Backbone:
């Protein structure tokens, strides 16, 4: 079994599903001969041809819009938005058409599209290349939003996203693209949708996080373990819908909740998770819920990006304070 | 200095039948067939009468905001007549003539404007897109469908409508650009009715024509008298034949006039100059097609009266079907969000059921 990076795993999943299902078509900017700016689609145009791996003109709104038209004809479109900061022109199509197509035609026309886009900072990229905008997408009914935190999850969730008959936004943590390797079996087996994943069992506090922050959170909780603080870590993975039941079960056991995300705090998903736990499990809590997040500032250019992104120390401090409160 | 011209363009304009019903040149085959023109005239008449009825239903509180089609009937019916059933239509929200030709029912139109998404569940053209409210955003859908036809080598075409206002939207230009770059089988029909709600074309753009907006996308553009059903159908048949033969897209600008308000929520007397509407009525599309048929002895007062009675009956039946269409259950807003709905939605669905409006609600 090969040890692969997260970006390799995405490539494997795309190739596997394209080989299995002739209706799968990839569109996006620079995804053909260039194989995508992160090489997620490397080699796929050579293997599957120019009809099935298409470079598009440079217009994100149109990429999302053409995907709507292609999908209504039965193609399963995987569209790449090169960086999440460039997704704004596509939001009209995603919100007004992709997410609504099934509903507004009472199921007559559907939209099996996956929008892939890099998510988050930490790679010293130019301006507008490091955004964490999941909140903008999770607010829309009719859309699923996924964010894998490991190569194996990237593979399994990508297969699930392509096979799902509804639109899915697939956020790829840029910082994890090549950070670590993991053995991933190219077995064509999809992971379940709408589920979060337990990364570590613990007794004192539940820590919910996703994407690249899972990596920093795991390092923080390993440090805290040396201080005899036992953390349960949940990788949210499905950002919309949120698997509240699993979080609530965990909080019922630990009595404490910390949410870690890279996106800005104001109306970040942490707020939704905290509100749901407060509504349903307030009396099981031994301490106030805490959010450890990016700041309510513009995502800074790379000189300050590591001041913005919650650090291992900031995460460890926040968890420790919550447990010792 | 070496200055030379590297690109030039021309925009042609076609009219076949003038406002008086006088035909110019040898007409295309369909237009030499009385039965075919009668069929088009019948549907144009139905649209005109249906429009009046729908406006009346809105005025009496029995229909929501409605977008009328009066004045556009020639373009709408001719586009429908030029398309094949297997083609796919991407309408805006007033192209009833095309939709009815393709099998959308009058009752479906009323159900939609009555505030119920079930009106878009067309029993006829199953792949046609529903009405599109965000202006211009349907253009990329048509390009995408055309891309699917091309990938699968299917001899089918996508037809997208847009208004003069929508030609200011990036989505139109982006879609035309893609279509030009990939020679996609799509026709963009700009229905230039002079007004984007209250903004006249002269304030919408500095371009002499809207058809020339195609040129920058490497796509041929042509203008046609949008009140002349014969010319519109001829231009569309040519454009669709090109597209089907793999020769790429066309932008057609049909010049017509919005003889009504933008919607029933609009009052065009607030912004249109005096006299413009009256002048436009002299060019309206039904009169000239009827005059052409009468010149050929293929239409008369008796047939006109019979047609109107037939249309009125059909419209009344549709209105009855609309009135007797039951209000959707509140579950309907949850039912079609996903093929596999997330479990968490179930609780909200039950809350909605518990507080569901029990009254049947106004039409």
Residues:
């Amino acid at each position: 079994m090969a040890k692969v990076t997260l970006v390799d795993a995405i490539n494997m999943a795309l190739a596997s599903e394209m080989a299995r299902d002739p209706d799968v078509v990839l569109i996006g900017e620079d995804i053909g001969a260039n194989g995508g700016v992160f090489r997620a689609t490397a080699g796929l145009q050579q293997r599957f041809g120019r009809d099935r791996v298409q470079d598009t003109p440079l217009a994100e709104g149109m990429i999302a819009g053409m995907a709507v038209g292609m999908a209504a004809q039965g193609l399963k479109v995987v569209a790449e938005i090169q960086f999440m900061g460039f997704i704004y022109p596509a939001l009209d199509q995603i919100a007004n058409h992709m997410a609504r197509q099934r509903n507004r035609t009472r199921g007559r026309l559907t939209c099996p599209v996956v929008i892939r886009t890099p998510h988050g900072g930490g790679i010293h990229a130019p301006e507008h290349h490091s955004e964490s905008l999941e909140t903008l997408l999770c607010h829309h009914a009719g859309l699923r939003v996924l964010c894998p935190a490991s190569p194996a999850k990237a593979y399994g969730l990508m297969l699930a996203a392509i096979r799902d008959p509804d639109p899915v936004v697939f956020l790829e943590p840029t910082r994890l693209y090549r950070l670590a390797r993991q053995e991933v079996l190219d077995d064509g087996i999809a992971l379940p949708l709408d589920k979060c994943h337990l990364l570590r069992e613990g007794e004192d506090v539940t820590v919910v996080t996703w994407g690249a922050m899972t990596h920093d959170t795991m390092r923080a909780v390993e440090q805290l373990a040396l201080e005899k603080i036992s953390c349960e870590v949940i990788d949210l993975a499905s950002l919309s819908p949120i698997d509240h039941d699993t979080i609530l079960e965990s909080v019922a056991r630990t009595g404490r909740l910390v949410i870690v995300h890279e996106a800005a705090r104001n109306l970040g998903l942490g707020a939704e998770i905290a509100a749901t736990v407060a509504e349903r499990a307030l009396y099981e809590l031994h301490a106030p819920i805490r959010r450890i997040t990016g700041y309510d500032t513009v995502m800074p250019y790379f000189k300050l990006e590591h001041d913005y992104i919650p650090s291992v120390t900031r995460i460890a401090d926040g968890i420790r304070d919550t447990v010792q409160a | 200095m070496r200055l030379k011209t590297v690109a030039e363009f021309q925009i042609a304009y076609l009219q076949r039948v003038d406002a008086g019903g006088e035909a110019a040149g040898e007409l295309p085959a369909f237009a030499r067939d009385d039965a075919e023109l009668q069929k088009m005239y019948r549907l144009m008449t139905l649209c005109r009468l249906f429009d009046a009825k729908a406006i009346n239903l809105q005025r009496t509180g029995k229909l929501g905001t409605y977008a009328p089609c009066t004045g556009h009937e020639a373009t709408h019916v001719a586009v429908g007549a030029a398309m094949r059933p297997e083609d796919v239509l991407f309408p805006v929200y007033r192209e009833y003539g095309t939709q009815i030709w393709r099998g959308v029912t009058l009752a479906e139109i009323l159900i939609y404007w009555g505030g119920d998404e079930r009106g878009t569940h067309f029993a006829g053209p199953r792949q046609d897109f529903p009405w599109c409210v965000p202006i211009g955003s349907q253009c990329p859908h048509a390009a995408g469908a055309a891309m699917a036809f091309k990938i699968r080598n299917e001899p089918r075409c996508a037809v997208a409508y847009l208004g003069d206002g929508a030609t200011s939207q990036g989505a139109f230009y982006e879609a035309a650009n893609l279509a030009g770059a990939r020679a996609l089988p799509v026709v963009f029909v700009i229905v230039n009715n002079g007004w984007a709600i209250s903004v006249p074309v002269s304030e919408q753009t500095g371009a002499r024509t809207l058809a020339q907006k195609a040129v920058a996308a490497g796509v041929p553009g042509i203008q046609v008298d949008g009140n002349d059903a014969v010319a519109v159908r001829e231009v569309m048949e040519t454009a669709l034949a090109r597209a089907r033969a793999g020769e790429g897209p066309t932008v057609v600008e049909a010049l017509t006039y919005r003889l009504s308000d933008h919607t029933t929520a609009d009052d065009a007397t607030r912004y249109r100059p005096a006299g413009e509407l009256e002048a436009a009525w002299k060019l309206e599309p039904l009169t000239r097609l009827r005059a052409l048929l009468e010149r050929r002895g293929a239409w008369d007062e008796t047939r006109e009266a019979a047609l109107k009675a037939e249309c009125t009956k059909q419209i009344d039946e549709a209105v009855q079907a609309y009135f007797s269409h039951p209000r959707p259950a509140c579950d309907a807003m949850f039912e079609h969000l996903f093929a596999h709905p997330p479990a968490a939605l179930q609780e909200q669905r039950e809350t909605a059921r518990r507080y569901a409006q029990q009254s049947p609600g106004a039409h």
